[in-house]
């Protein structure tokens, strides 16, 4: 809608950009952004406006404000990964996905906050502080949660966004941008999408280039897409997917961008319900939502069957080993010599490295590096690392067996509960939390399958809950068609942000249900 | 099994992250305990999986120089440098041993 508005001249790119920038300023308390690129954004908006004046917009995304997670390299803009190690690091190049967005004329409004080096499931462990879920300030949450508390109580009740792309999700959810790029290694795009009531797409591994994405687990990372509706996600996917000679893990098949049907039809599909996803700790209201969704599909004529993925509960353990092992290797590049933080210790190379890394990384990262090195020791290699790789094959095999038996798409919950209040979340350490929260999203990363989280309903506490669809490799079109059908059925309510409404009433009126497709 | 001091020392040297305090050791123990659950799974005869794209051929491009010459940009990010060299403190000096 916004794209059409830009084309018709109802609003100009610079106006749009300025509104988003002022909205970012008024929602600063959400801490969704690490860097707001005001000057470059306005310049890009002006260039876009010039193109519209000449009647030559570059495409659907021309002039649209977007945000990028801070573990993607952006030329000339500080890229920190929310870590002391990279504070002040100005990237010399653009990540491929960033370049593709800029080539389409998108306006980059800022880099969003995350867990340090994308490790975590709450966006609470970065050095710039935790990200607050915009729904904590929505009328829906306030009504259900604290109708008669005073303002200091309200301060402590804010909920987390989920992680690790929490900043991106919060940015899209609070209307400060129209689409955001995150990364997904264990659920890092879908988890915050579910908690913030936005659409979170994890594409098939190998579809979108990882060049420029600071890696966590090379065999499972993918750039993720966060938008307010499924159609937008399809549009962004169409622009970002495709082979990249700079990333040898992207497939060479030519990607054909697709448009989703206006009236998607699910009656000929087979929807699988994996019974192991009824994990311990799953909130009863989410379970009810899950069955209601299954019934919706049944009523529409789709075949809904229960399936089994027997190794689901080991995917978290497997992830733990593989992730820490890859992290130990990937974090080895941070030694302070070529870029990033460097300690003042100068007695020896090794002591300088050790001091730099101690100062630059937080406890979570250091813990993972240490565990990873342990699992990779010669005496442990077979028992842990190779074993985890074998379990990975079993998990991937589970999925291919299910898809091979005729199931088209799997329907599962995305998270076990709705967003937790920050004070509760931090009571357990990062690893425990990740193990709990990633349980439903992790397996799709193990097998490299595409998955999408679609907001489904509001919980008892007035917070969003999402449901996840997992599709076949490289069948994003089918996956997104199902997601779009579901989205239409559910009619998820828009967020009603009170405090922000006071300042920017007409911005919200204009953008409340705005999509750009 | 408990993590011995030798292993910890060895790990510190390999990982080059400081985690000498008891909290670090405890974390590691818990991580190992968690990972031990893997042994419940029977993986006889299963090939380890390196990548989900294993059925495809790796893309190789022609051996032509397509980019480079970015010395100036790259040197901007380094803190200690002399002309076009990165400066490191003296090497080959091992870390002090862990005493416990």
UniProtKB/TrEMBL annotation, chain A:
<dbReference type="InterPro" id="IPR004412">
    <property type="entry name" value="GatA"/>
</dbReference>
<keyword id="KW-0547">Nucleotide-binding</keyword>
<keyword id="KW-0808">Transferase</keyword>
<dbReference type="GO" id="GO:0005739">
    <property type="term" value="C:mitochondrion"/>
</dbReference>
<keyword id="KW-0496">Mitochondrion</keyword>
<dbReference type="GO" id="GO:0032543">
    <property type="term" value="P:mitochondrial translation"/>
</dbReference>
<dbReference type="InterPro" id="IPR036928">
    <property type="entry name" value="AS_sf"/>
</dbReference>
<keyword id="KW-0067">ATP-binding</keyword>
<keyword id="KW-0436">Ligase</keyword>
<protein>
    <submittedName>
        <fullName>GATA amidotransferase</fullName>
    </submittedName>
</protein>
<dbReference type="InterPro" id="IPR000120">
    <property type="entry name" value="Amidase"/>
</dbReference>
<keyword id="KW-0648">Protein biosynthesis</keyword>
<dbReference type="GO" id="GO:0050567">
    <property type="term" value="F:glutaminyl-tRNA synthase (glutamine-hydrolyzing) activity"/>
</dbReference>
<dbReference type="GO" id="GO:0030956">
    <property type="term" value="C:glutamyl-tRNA(Gln) amidotransferase complex"/>
</dbReference>
<dbReference type="GO" id="GO:0005524">
    <property type="term" value="F:ATP binding"/>
</dbReference>
<feature type="domain" description="Amidase">
    <location>
        <begin position="20"/>
        <end position="480"/>
    </location>
</feature>
<dbReference type="Pfam" id="PF01425">
    <property type="entry name" value="Amidase"/>
</dbReference>
<dbReference type="GO" id="GO:0016740">
    <property type="term" value="F:transferase activity"/>
</dbReference>
<dbReference type="GO" id="GO:0070681">
    <property type="term" value="P:glutaminyl-tRNAGln biosynthesis via transamidation"/>
</dbReference>
<dbReference type="InterPro" id="IPR023631">
    <property type="entry name" value="Amidase_dom"/>
</dbReference>
UniProtKB/TrEMBL annotation, chain B:
<dbReference type="GO" id="GO:0030956">
    <property type="term" value="C:glutamyl-tRNA(Gln) amidotransferase complex"/>
</dbReference>
<dbReference type="InterPro" id="IPR036113">
    <property type="entry name" value="Asp/Glu-ADT_sf_sub_c"/>
</dbReference>
<protein>
    <submittedName>
        <fullName>GATC amidotransferase</fullName>
    </submittedName>
</protein>
<dbReference type="GO" id="GO:0016740">
    <property type="term" value="F:transferase activity"/>
</dbReference>
<dbReference type="GO" id="GO:0070681">
    <property type="term" value="P:glutaminyl-tRNAGln biosynthesis via transamidation"/>
</dbReference>
<dbReference type="InterPro" id="IPR003837">
    <property type="entry name" value="GatC"/>
</dbReference>
<dbReference type="GO" id="GO:0006450">
    <property type="term" value="P:regulation of translational fidelity"/>
</dbReference>
<dbReference type="Pfam" id="PF02686">
    <property type="entry name" value="GatC"/>
</dbReference>
<dbReference type="GO" id="GO:0032543">
    <property type="term" value="P:mitochondrial translation"/>
</dbReference>
<dbReference type="GO" id="GO:0005739">
    <property type="term" value="C:mitochondrion"/>
</dbReference>
<keyword id="KW-0808">Transferase</keyword>
């Amino acid at each position: 809608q916004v794209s059409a508005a830009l084309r018709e001249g109802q609003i100009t790119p610079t106006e749009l950009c300025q509104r988003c920038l002022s909205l970012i300023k008024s929602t600063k308390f959400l801490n969704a952004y690490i860097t707001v690129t005001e000057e470059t954004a306005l310049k890009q908006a002006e260039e876009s406006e010039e193109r519209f004046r000449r009647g030559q917009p570059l495409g659907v995304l021309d002039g649209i404000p977007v945000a990028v997670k801070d573990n993607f390299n952006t030329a000339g803009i500080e890229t920190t990964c929310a870590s002391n190690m990279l504070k002040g690091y100005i990237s010399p190049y653009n990540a491929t996905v960033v370049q593709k967005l800029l080539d389409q004329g998108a306006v980059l409004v800022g880099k969003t906050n995350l867990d340090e080096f994308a490790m975590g499931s709450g966006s609470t462990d970065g050095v710039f502080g935790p990200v607050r879920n915009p729904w904590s300030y929505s009328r829906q949450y306030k009504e259900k949660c604290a109708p008669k508390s005073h303002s200091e109580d309200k301060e402590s009740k804010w909920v987390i966004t989920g992680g690790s792309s929490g900043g991106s999700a919060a940015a899209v959810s609070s209307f400060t941008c129209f689409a955001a790029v995150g990364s997904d290694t264990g659920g890092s795009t879908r988890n915050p999408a579910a908690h913030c009531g936005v659409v979170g797409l994890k594409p098939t591994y190998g579809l979108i280039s990882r060049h420029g994405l600071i890696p966590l687990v090379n065999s499972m990372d993918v750039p993720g897409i966060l938008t307010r509706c499924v159609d937008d996600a399809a549009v962004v996917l169409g622009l970002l997917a495709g082979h990249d000679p700079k990333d040898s893990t992207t497939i060479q098949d030519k990607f054909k961008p697709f448009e989703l049907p206006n009236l998607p039809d699910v009656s000929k599909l087979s929807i699988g319900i994996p019974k192991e996803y009824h994990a311990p700790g799953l909130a009863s209201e989410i379970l009810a939502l899950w069955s209601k969704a299954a019934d919706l599909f049944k009523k529409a004529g789709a075949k809904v069957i229960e399936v089994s993925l027997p190794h689901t509960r080991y995917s978290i353990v497997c992830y733990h080993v593989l992730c820490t092992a890859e992290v130990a290797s990937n974090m080895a590049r941070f030694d302070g010599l070529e870029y990033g933080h460097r300690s003042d210790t100068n007695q020896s190379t090794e002591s300088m490295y050790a001091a730099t890394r101690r100062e630059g990384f937080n406890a979570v990262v250091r813990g993972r590096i240490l565990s990873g090195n342990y699992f990779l020791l010669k005496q442990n290699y077979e028992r842990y690392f190779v074993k985890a790789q074998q379990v990975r094959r079993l998990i991937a095999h589970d999925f291919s067996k299910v898809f091979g038996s005729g199931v088209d798409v799997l329907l599962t919950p995305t998270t076990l509960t709705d967003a937790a209040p920050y004070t509760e979340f931090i009571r357990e350490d990062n690893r425990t939390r990740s193990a709990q929260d990633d349980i439903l999203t992790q397996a799709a990363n193990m097998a490299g399958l595409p998955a999408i989280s679609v907001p489904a309903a509001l919980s008892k506490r007035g917070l969003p809950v999402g449901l996840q669809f997992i599709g076949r490799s490289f069948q994003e079109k089918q996956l997104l068609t199902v997601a779009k059908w579901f989205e239409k059925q559910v009619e998820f309510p828009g967020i009603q942000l009170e405090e922000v409404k006071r300042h920017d009433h007409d911005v919200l009126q204009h953008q409340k249900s705005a999509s750009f497709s | 099994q408990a993590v011995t001091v030798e292993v910890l020392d060895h790990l510190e040297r390999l990982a080059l992250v400081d985690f000498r305090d008891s909290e670090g050791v405890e974390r590691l123990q818990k991580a190992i305990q968690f990972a031990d659950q893997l042994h419940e799974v029977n993986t006889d005869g299963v090939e380890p999986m390196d990548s989900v794209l294993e059925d495809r051929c790796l893309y190789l491009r022609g051996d032509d120089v397509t980019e480079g010459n970015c010395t100036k940009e790259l040197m901007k990010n380094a803190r200690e440098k002399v002309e076009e060299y990165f400066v490191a403190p003296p090497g080959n000096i091992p870390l002090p041993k862990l005493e416990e």
